[in-house]
Each structure stands twice: as C-alpha cells, then as structure tokens.
C-alpha cells in the first residue's frame, strides 16, 4: 500500500468519527485503512451483498437507498465529510447476517477512507467495550421486542379468527340441538296419534291410504320452497278456516307446519276422503307431525352441513393437512378466508366476488397466501368503517394470476402510501396493531412466491393487486411483463 492511498493519523483525526481516538488508535487505523475513489454514478456497495468494508466519505457526494417492491428508494443524500456507511454491524459478528443494509451510490466523483469489516469490528470491540455492550443490548433487545410484538400480533389475529369461527360454528350447532329436541317431541306425538288411528277403528284399506298420504306429504315437504310472508299468511288463514269447518281442534297450531310442507286445502280434502270425517282430527295431526319431522330433519341436515363446511373452510384456511407447497385453487383459498372472517365483516359491508373460474391452479404455499388475503380483507373492512363494498376479483395477465382486493373506504393518504409495506408501520392508534400485516404480505408474495403486490388508491376506491406466477418457471420473470 503506497502513501498515496493512505491517510496519516493526523488526517484521520480530522474526521469527526475518529477525533476522540488516541495516537495509537489513529496509527492502527492509518495502517489498516486505505483511500479509494469511486466515479460519479457508480455504486460504492449494494444492498444485500456481503458487508466487507466500512466506508467514510472524504470528498464528493453520496446517496443511501433501500430497495422496496422492486424500486430503489433514496433514504438520504449528503456531501458531509466524515459521513459513513457499509459494515456498520460488523461488531456483532456472526450473530447477524453480515450484509450491506442499504445501497451507497456516488452522486459525483467521491473519495473514501475504507477499513476492512473485520478490522473495524476488532477496533469497536477492543476500544469501546462498554459502548459495545450498550449497542448489543439495544440491537438485540429491539429485535427481541419486535419478535415478541410480532408473535403477539399474530396470536391476537389468531384469537380473533378463532372467536369468529366459534361464533359461526355455534349458530348451526345450536340450531341442530333445538331441532333435535323438537324432533323428539314430534316423534313422540306421532307415535301417540298413530296409536289412536290404528286402534282398530280404521280398516286396512283406509290405513294403507293414510300411510301413502304420509309418504306423499313427507316428499312434498322435502321439496317445498319457502313462501313469501304475505302469501304464507293467506295460505294459513285458508287452511285454518277449512280445518275449523271440519271440526279440527286448535287448527291455528297446525297450519304453519302444513303450509311450510306445501299442504293446501285440496290435499286436506283428500285426507278427509281417505280416513273419514270422524278420524280427520287425529289424521291431520299425525300428518302434521310427519311433515314437521321432515322439516326438522332438514334443519338438522342443513346445520350439520354448515358445520362440516365451516370445518372444511378452517382446514382449507390453515392447510394443516396438506404439504406446505402444493398446487392450490386460489378461489378455494379466498372463499376459506372469507368464511373465517365472516364474523368480522359487518352486515352493511357487501361482499362481491368477480372470479374467473377458468383460471388454473398454481403452485404456492396455501396457508401463507391465506395470511395475505386475511390482511388485505381485514384492512379493507377497517377502511370502510362498517359500510361499503368489498370486491374480490381474479383474472389472468399473461403468465401471471392476478388477485385484487378492493374497497370503497377512505383511501390511503399520499404521505402514507410509500410506507405501507414497511415493517411495523401502522396508521392505527397505539395498541391497535403493530403494522405487521402488509409487511408480512409483501414478504410472502414477493420474496417467497416471486410475485408482486401493488396498491392503487383514492378516496372511495382502494385496490390491492397481488400477482402470482402460474408456473414455477415464471417465478423469475417481471410481474406484468406477459
């Protein structure tokens, strides 16, 4: 190393970073450091590359930038002599990844005092042991706190999802319990009425005809469609009048069930003809029990189906019984997420699905994509303050599958938009979140799936766009290039 690419101890002392060092320390730096030049417009070092050197600006101007969603965002620009960058965490050794945390670029021809990273680390550890402990505590303490807060945020989110799922499961489960209790009473009543009918007062022909009517009534009830409230009320009044005229006691108690089962006056006239007027009361009640039993079994079947669908949605959402990376149907993931979040979506928020059902399945980490949909949908619902339209749409853009989550909320302010994907950035009040959602979504989509996530926003319309490669071979392409 020649004298032309070194600084003397006296020259190093003129740099504010080293002005308090003693002569021996300055001599140590002078022996190990060197002077390097960079042409204007070139990169001094690049973000993510191995951090091998510590740079101190001697002359010229530089910028520091970070890469965000494919764009280089300038963080700072300076021509201050003594400004520094590079391997600033070398003193932490192999406890952290030793890579450059940003990109330094030379705005003009620039000159630097450069110290190898391992030499810089030795100087810090040897000369400033107390400061080293403080810096280590600050760094690892902050990182540990961030990790704990992140885990806590995810647990809170999981608790909210669990509460929502429990609420959704409780409704059909309670309906099934109520229907089962009512069914038990109806079956008991039907047995009692059957005993009265079949005590020898009906001949075999009439009893056979009544059983056939029962079968027809059950099939008719299973296929009956719900009537509008006004139509059902008129039908009940008509049946009640007919039953009263034919001596059926407390007809008002039977007509709702009969109408729900699709029974009308002509059908009751057939019953009267089959069993005779003297047995009509017991026969109508027996048939009403049979119809009610069929309707209750339909309720139980519906409740059990809803429970099964919810469990299926939870399995689809969590992907617990599936390989981490597999071919997935993006629509099944979206629908499972909607099911899990149903309790958090207010009734005044209209959910619109605009799915392209012709889209192929794609290779992906299903459970992690569900985290993305959860974050985007949850944020969209929050932005609408309880009222608006949530739109989920899918389409194809060349070799990319596009998923869009749009809302009619207030939009993202211009001053906030550049920061929404930053870790721990949030616009929520203190205690309402740590701002993990969009940062996690970005890392899942961009880094893990080699996709892209963008946002278009204005008051009344915000649209997050997620692009995912349709085949693994497309993962290295530029989103939207197809």
3D structure, described in words:
The chain is of the alpha+beta class. It has 3 domains: 3-127, Jelly Rolls (Sandwich), CATH 2.60.120; 163-310, no CATH class; 325-476, Heat Shock Protein 90 (2-Layer Sandwich), CATH 3.30.565.10. The protein has helices at 9-13, 23-32, 117-127, 129-197, 204-223, 229-245, 255-260, 265-275, 280-318, 330-340, 366-383, 437-448; strands at 34-38, 43-45, 53-59, 62-68, 71-78, 84-86, 103-106, 110-116, 326-328, 349-354, 362-364, 388-397, 400-407, 452-458, 461-469. A 5-stranded mixed β-sheet has the order 10-12-13-15-14. It has a 4-stranded antiparallel β-sheet with strand order 1-8-3-6. A 4-stranded antiparallel β-sheet has the order 2-7-4-5, with no helix packed on it. Helix 4 (129-197) packs antiparallel against helix 9 (280-318), helix 5 (204-223) packs parallel to helix 9 and helix 9 packs across helix 10 (330-340). It is rod-shaped, with a radius of gyration of 37 Å.
How many domains make up the coordinates?
3
- Helix-residue proportion: 40-55%
Compressed to H and E, one letter per element, the order equals HHEEEEEEEEHHHHHHHEHEEHEEHEE
Provide the residue-averaged pLDDT.
79
The CATH architecture of the largest domain can be named as: 2-Layer Sandwich
CATH class of the largest domain: Alpha Beta
Low-pLDDT windows of residues? 429-436, 473-482
Query: How would you name the CATH homologous superfamily of the largest domain?
Result: Histidine kinase-like ATPase, C-terminal domain
């Amino acid at each position: 190393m020649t004298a032309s690419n070194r600084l003397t101890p006296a020259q190093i002392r003129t740099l504010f970073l080293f002005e308090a060092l003693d002569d021996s320390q300055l001599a140590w730096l002078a022996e190990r450091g060197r002077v390097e030049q960079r042409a204007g417009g070139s990169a001094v070092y690049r973000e993510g590359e191995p951090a091998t050197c510590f740079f101190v600006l001697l002359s010229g101007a530089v910028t520091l930038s970070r890469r965000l969603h494919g764009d280089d965002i300038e963080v700072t620009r300076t021509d201050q002599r003594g400004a520094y960058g590079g391997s600033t965490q070398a003193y932490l050794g192999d406890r952290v990844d030793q890579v450059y945390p940003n990109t330094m670029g030379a705005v003009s021809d620039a000159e630097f005092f450069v110290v190898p990273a391992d030499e810089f680390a030795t100087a810090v550890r040897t000369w400033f042991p107390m400061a080293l402990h403080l810096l280590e505590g600050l760094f690892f303490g902050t990182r540990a706190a961030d990790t704990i807060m992140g885990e806590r945020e995810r647990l809170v989110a999981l608790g909210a999802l669990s509460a929502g799922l429990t609420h959704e499961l409780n409704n059909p489960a309670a309906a099934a319990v109520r229907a089962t209790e009512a069914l038990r009473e109806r079956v008991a009543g039907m047995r009692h009425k059957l005993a009265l009918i079949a005590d020898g007062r009906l001949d075999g022909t009439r009893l056979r005809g009544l059983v056939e009517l029962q079968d027809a009534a059950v099939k008719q009830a299973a296929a009956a469609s719900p009537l509008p409230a006004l139509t059902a009320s008129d039908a009940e009044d008509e049946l009640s009048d007919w039953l009263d005229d034919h001596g059926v006691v407390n007809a008002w108690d039977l007509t709702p069930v009969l109408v729900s089962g699709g029974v009308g006056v002509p059908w009751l006239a057939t019953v009267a003809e089959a069993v005779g007027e003297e047995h009509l009361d017991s026969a109508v009640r027996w048939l009403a029990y049979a119809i009610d039993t069929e309707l209750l079994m339909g309720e139980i079947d519906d409740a059990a189906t809803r429970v099964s669908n919810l469990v299926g949605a939870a399995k689809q959402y969590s992907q617990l019984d599936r390989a981490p990376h597999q071919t997935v149907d993006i629509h099944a993931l979206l629908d499972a997420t909607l099911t899990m979040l149903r309790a958090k979506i207010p009734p005044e928020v209209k959910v619109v699905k605009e799915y392209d059902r012709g889209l192929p399945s794609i290779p992906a980490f299903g459970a992690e994509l569900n985290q993305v949909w959860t974050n985007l949908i949850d944020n969209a619902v929050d932005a609408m303050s309880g009222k608006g339209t949530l739109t989920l749409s899918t389409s194809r853009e060349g070799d990319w599958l596009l998923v869009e989550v749009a809302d009619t909320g207030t939009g993202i302010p211009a001053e906030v938009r550049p920061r929404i994907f930053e870790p721990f950035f949030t616009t929520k009040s203190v205690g309402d979140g740590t701002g993990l959602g969009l940062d996690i979504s970005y890392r899942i989509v961009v880094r893990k799936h080699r996709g892209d996530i963008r946002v278009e926003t204005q008051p009344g319309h915000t649209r997050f766009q997620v692009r995912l490669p349709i085949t693994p071979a497309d993962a290295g392409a530029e989103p939207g290039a197809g």
